[in-house]
Design brief:
Elements lengths: L8 E8 L3 H11 L5 E8 L2 H10 L4 E5 L1 E2 L2 E2 L4 H7 L5 E5 L4 H9 L4 E4 L5 H84 L5 H32 L8 E2 L2 H15 L6 E6 L6 E2 L1 H17 L7 E7 L3 E8 L31 H11 L3 E7 L3 E9 L1 E2 L3 E2 L2
Parallel strand pairs: 1-2, 1-3, 3-6, 6-7, 9-11
Antiparallel strand pairs: 4-5, 8-10, 11-12, 12-14, 13-14, 15-16
Helix pairs in contact: 5-6, 6-9, 7-8, 8-9
Amino acid sequence: MTSFMVTPRLLKILLVEDSLAEARLLQEILKGATSYHFKFAHQTRLTAALGALEQEPFDLILLDLTLPDSAGLASLEPLLKTVPQIPIVVLTHHHDERLALEAVRRGAQDYLVKRDITLDILLRAINYAIERKQAALSLLRLNADLKENVSHLTEDIQAQAAELDKVKALNQMKTEFVSMLSHDFRNPLNTILLSAGLLEESGDRLTPEQQVNYFQMIRKAIKDMDQLLSEVLVLGRSESGKLQASLGPLNLVEFCWELINSLQSAQNEERQIRLVTQGNVDVGLWDTNLLRHILANLLSNALKYSDPPSPVLLELIGEPERVIFQITDQGRGIPPEALPELFNPFFRADNVGAVGGTGLGLAIAQRCAEIHGGRVTVHSRVNQGTTFTVTLPVWDDNTGLSE
């Protein structure tokens, strides 16, 4: 039959006790243990004990609650802050049991009344203290892991909620798009069908002027449908992240004049768009398509929602790190309650009246400005006019955002 020798476990104990006699007694008592070998470091003051803890590791602290430089619970807190992972057994006289119990409540693992100490009691206190501290540390780690898992779960839930909101918004957009198609496509289609039918059935009875008029109506209806499809396509590409900025050199003043002339020539009545420049605007790289979507939509709205006699003002302001476009009209304005929803797709304020539109222009302008690194803001007063401000950073070849 083979027998195995069990090597006693070595425990390093820091004994904080100002009485040399009681310190020797504790060490003598523990010499009778067979399951442990003990290595002691004895300190008579709390400050010295804290210094010893910074020099070497220990498995356990035996702490007298009455020391020359500290007394009662004041001795416990610095130790718990310095070495929170080391179990502490407090030592007290018989009349200090209430204080010892409070020490346990505050973080010590056990307490001993000095006059009652025996080898069995001391060993049991040491074992319990080590096990309790390990259990407490495990619980802390488990709690930390649980908090981290809860945090990750919360982030996942928030991400899923945000994704769900996007899906809901997309579904709502699809619903509104279908509704818009059924209305805004029907009108030009009806115009095309009616004009084509009249040309086909009564062409020989129509004067040349009437025939030209019907052809012009067909062209305008087709143009309206093409513009609507283009707006939907741009918005869809921006929502899916497929609309990206493609930067290149551009003369902003010439670009603005070309856009103004194009918009003014498309109006039935004579409309004036004034261009004012300020500062250095001949800088940076620009995406011509994004810029056209932004300014064309804002200028078109300014023309649509203001009376013909009043001019529309386009201000082009160059600053060191950005260029600002301000479009100002003297039209009907936007109600305050409509401003928070103004850049949402398909939204139209209640005071637009019979003025046609899809509710996509401002959403497209804002999306394009964001893709270009900027934003669109609005200031408006009902029956006094509206100012849209487009702020775009100046980009260059080397650093992106110009400095």
